């Protein structure tokens, strides 16, 4: 049984992410945890001395959040009636990242699934600020779904790697699980500028290949392109419908998405994106 966290801000973007996730795991026995977090504006000033409860603000926000969560749950049950799926709801006076950390420490999350943008939906920006924080800090896999992506079964999975990671079975298992669920093929993409693999890279590549023996997979070597361009070009050419990357600190993942290039790939990344942390329990 999987426990899947579905953070929501009640936007259509987050609804689309929920719809995608429920369909992706339609054949799995799952508990879905619908989470809405809120922080009263007064917290930004002198919350400790003033006390939001004096104004009834925190109570009012909690009540509103709980009503919206109940309405969301009814919307889900009206569209999906899957006996394999159960639901929990939670309205939390907290920031999203801190609440996720608390839930994770309580062994309550296997996967986080969320939309790529929040209610603001700023054009030209790949990830909303909440998504960026979650991707950067999550200790379990995070599935980010673009707001305009309609569900389709993942049949071509793209997994770029620089082979600089000492791969562990726990990191690769989420990819293998999805590939097995849908008979998908995993495309392992390596970008280089004509150099041979180092001894360490060659060792890591062989380790990686061993983890994919139970699923269809292909290795691809692309030369003289930026990683961002190679990902964009390959996903269009091969009709990829799931991108997977390891978020390894100081890796090329970090360089692409959390430094100067965060918008460089934003106009091309229009498929679901599974991010696996370097340490997965």
Task: Tag the structure with descriptive keywords.
281 residues, alpha/beta, Rossmann fold, 2 domains, ten-stranded mixed sheet, 37% helix, UspA, Universal stress protein, Universal_stress_UspA
Word description of this protein:
The chain is elongated. Strands 3-2-1-4-5-10-9-6-7-8 form a 10-stranded mixed β-sheet, with helices on both faces. The protein folds into 2 domains: 2-145, HUPs (Rossmann fold, 3-Layer(aba) Sandwich); 156-242, Rossmann fold (3-Layer(aba) Sandwich), CATH 3.40.50.620. The longest helix has 23 residues, at 57-79. With 281 residues, it is an alpha/beta fold. Helices cover 37% and strands 23% of the residues. The relative contact order is 0.14.
Coarse morphology: elongated
- Say how many strands there are: 10
Helix content: 25-40%
Order of helices and strands: EHEHHEHEHEEHEHEHEHE
**CATH class call of the largest domain:** Alpha Beta
| Radius of gyration from the alpha-carbon trace, in angstroms | 20 Å
Distance between the amino and carboxyl termini:
15 Å
Main sheet characteristics: 10 strands, mixed
Overall pLDDT confidence: 84
Strand content: 15-25%
Please tell me the total number of domains. 2
The CATH topology of the largest domain turns out to be Rossmann fold
InterPro entries: Universal_stress_UspA, UspA
Protein name: Universal stress protein
Pfam families: Usp
Family: Belongs to the universal stress protein A family.
Short description:
Belongs to the universal stress protein A family. This is Universal stress protein. With 281 residues, the chain is of the alpha/beta class.
């Amino acid at each position: 049984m999987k426990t899947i966290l579905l953070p929501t801000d009640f936007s259509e973007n987050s609804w689309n992410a929920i719809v995608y996730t429920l369909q992706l795991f339609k054949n799995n026995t799952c508990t879905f945890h619908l989470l809405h977090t809120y922080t009263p504006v007064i917290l930004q000033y002198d919350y400790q001395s003033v006390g939001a409860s004096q104004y009834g603000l925190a109570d009012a926000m909690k009540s509103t959040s709980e009503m919206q969560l109940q309405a969301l749950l009814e919307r889900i049950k009206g569209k999906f009636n899957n006996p394999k799926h159960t639901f929990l709801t939670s309205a939390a006076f907290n920031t999203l990242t801190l609440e996720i950390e608390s839930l994770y420490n309580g062994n309550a999350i296997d996967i986080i699934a969320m939309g790529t943008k929040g209610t603001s939906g700023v054009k030209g920006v790949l990830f909303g600020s909440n998504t960026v924080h979650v991707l950067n800090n999550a200790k379990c896999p995070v599935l980010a779904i673009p707001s305009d992506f309609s569900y389709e079964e993942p049949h071509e999975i793209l997994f770029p790697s620089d082979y600089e990671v000492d791969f562990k079975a726990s990191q690769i298992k989420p990819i293998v699980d999805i590939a097995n669920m849908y008979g998908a093929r995993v495309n392992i993409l390596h970008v280089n500028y004509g150099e041979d693999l180092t001894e360490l890279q060659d060792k890591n590549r062989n380790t990686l290949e061993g983890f994919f023996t139970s699923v269809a997979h292909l290795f691809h070597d692309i030369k003289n392109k930026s990683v961002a361009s190679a990902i964009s070009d390959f996903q269009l050419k091969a009709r990829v419908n799931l991108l997977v990357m390891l978020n390894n600190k100081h890796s090329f993942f970090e360089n692409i998405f959390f430094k100067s290039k965060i918008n460089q790939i934003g106009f091309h990344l229009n498929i679901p994106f599974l991010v696996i942390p370097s340490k997965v329990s």
